[in-house]
Amino acid sequence: MSEDTTIGKFTRRDVIGAAGAATLAVTVPGLAQTPGRRPNFLFIMADDLGYADLSCYGRREYQTPVLDGLAAQGLKFNHGYANSAVCSATRVGLITGRYQYRVRVGLEEPLGNRELGLEPSHPTLPSLLKGAGYHTGLVGKWHLGWLPDFGPQLSGYDEFWGIRGGGVDYFTHKVNGQPDLWDGDVQIEEVGYMTDMMADRAIEYLDARGGEVNRPWLLSLHFTAPHWPWEANDAKGRAESARLDEHGPTIPGSLDITHFDGGDMETYAGMVTSLDMNVGRVLARLAELGMEQDTVVVFTSDNGGERFSDNWPFTGIKTELLEGGMRVPLLVKWPGLTLPGTETDVPAMSMDFLPTFLAAAGTSPHPDYPSDGVDLRPVLAGGTLPERTLFWRFWAKDQKAARRGDFKYLSIAGEEYLFDVVADPLERANLKYRRPEIFESLKTAFNDWNEGMLADPNASSYRFTPRELADHFGWDS
User: Fold this and answer.
1) pLDDT digits (tens, 9 = 90+) for 77-109
2) Cβ atoms of residues 40 and 160 within 8 Å
3) Average pLDDT over residues 124-136
């Protein structure tokens, strides 16, 4: 780790203090939310965070005391899944509560076409909660379409502050030389490290909600960290930002911020620990405002990690339907529902939070757009759910996956597999021939499900190649 222990305006002492507050909260379990009041929802999403990138999930090179404390206060999912192996597709599943393949924009992996976006007419988590009397805000990454036809405030958010695209430089807030920072529909210029700035704005949102004590709210806090470019909040990170701003992409045809000639383990540690510390700042303010016991807190990632991430004990990374590309950290603290320090092996998916939040708010999905997700509250209370089959698709390399119980059907470029992902999380032992009945059942289920989903051969789908990552030498055929 760098000797520079100051991150933005805050030091590692602040991180330790936030972790201590989290530990203290564990000593007073079972506090219920205010009787008769509907819960607030704070949904925190990291970007490209690997399954084991938090120390409570196994990271060894650094510590994440705030998020470890959140796990100690609530429920840790061991089988949390993103809806996709890339960001914008997962965000479609999250905001609609449905498989992203039901809408055209959800086929983009990820979204880059400025003619496409989430249609404002489609009911969403924020629009449905807003209709039920909630105030709704998004701070951070949108990546579901550009103005003038698409945007957060056209899809149910009362407020938006953040970026509209897939990522920006942490210091210049630009991508390919173009700024992408917005306050509502107004493009703005501000100085600061992006992770700090998002936490600053989230705290401002909480302060405003503190003056509306009787109105519940949803805050979607979608950080860009630890998505590339690889820039921690230190002198080295600022130097890299200046270099990228001056020289642009290092691989012809790529984005400047993809940064394939940058990064290292120390930098990545700085990015994740900054994320952890800033989550701590937001949670501390929530407690200071007296809203902690009325607020559900969820922390997760939009897909698996890549390059400097730790996805152990899985193989695969972002853009791949191996477990490492879509199994993600998932922590939920729900006062009066989750028990401190508990874990579950029940699988959950990004799209499950729409029906879960709506049910708790006393409303339901639009009847014309039924959710593909399920209400997770029985799991959060320590129970289980009826067995279900979960499905994924990824256009690059014609990837397909279905999971039911311990078993997963996987197809990549026509090669088919059956894995017991509980006994064999590395996905090494192909049980296709040993358990043919399970293999055929899952394959048939996938094909039946897939017939009801949209398909477009012109949709974009990103994958890594040997030009970018040496360990993908076989993925260019």
Assistant:
1) 999 999 999 999 999 999 999 999 999 999 999
2) no
3) 98
Q: H-type helices in 217-288, by residue range?
A: 235-247, 265-288
For 140, the token pair is 């951070």
Closest to 259 (Cα-Cα) out of 326, 191, 307:
307
What's the pLDDT at 253? 74
Pairing outcome for strands 174-175 and 178-179: antiparallel
d(CA 86, CA 141) in angstroms, rounded, equals 14
d(CA 364, CA 357): 9
DSSP assignment string, 9-37: TEEHHHHHHHHHHHHHHHTSTTPPPPTTP
Crossing angle of helices 265-288 and 194-209, in 10° steps, is: 10
pLDDT at 408 over 80: yes
Quick one: average pLDDT of 448-468?
90
Q: Which residue is it, tokens 């990690």?
A: 305
DSSP state of 338: S
State the Cα–Cα distance between residues 162 and 241, nearest whole angstrom: 19
Cβ-contact 105, 116 below 8 angstroms: yes
Of 152, 70, 90, residue with least CA distance to 118: 152
SS3 396: helix
CA distances from 236 to 7, 266, 267 (A): 13, 11, 8
Contact assessment for residue 253 and residue 190, using Cβ atoms and an 8 Å cutoff: no
Q: In angstroms, rounded to a whole number, what is the distance separating the alpha carbons of residues 271 and 8?
A: 12
Length of the chain: 477
Residue 465 has pLDDT above 90, yes or no: no
What single-letter DSSP state applies at residue 339? P
Q: What is the pLDDT of residues 21-45, one digit of tens each?
A: 343 333 333 344 677 889 999 999 9
Three-state secondary structure call for residue 389: strand
Of 376, 305, 296, nearest to 336 by C-alpha is: 296
pLDDT digits (tens, 9 = 90+) for 189-201: 999 999 999 999 9
Strand partners, 316: none
Mean pLDDT of 221-239: 98
- β-pairing, 186-187 vs 182-183, is antiparallel
* Placement of tokens 């650094």 in the chain: 62
CB atoms within 10 A of CB 187: 12
3-state SS class at 128 = helix
Q: In this structure, which amino acid lies at residue 62?
A: Y
Mean pLDDT (the chain) is: 92
- Give the mean pLDDT of 379-395: 97
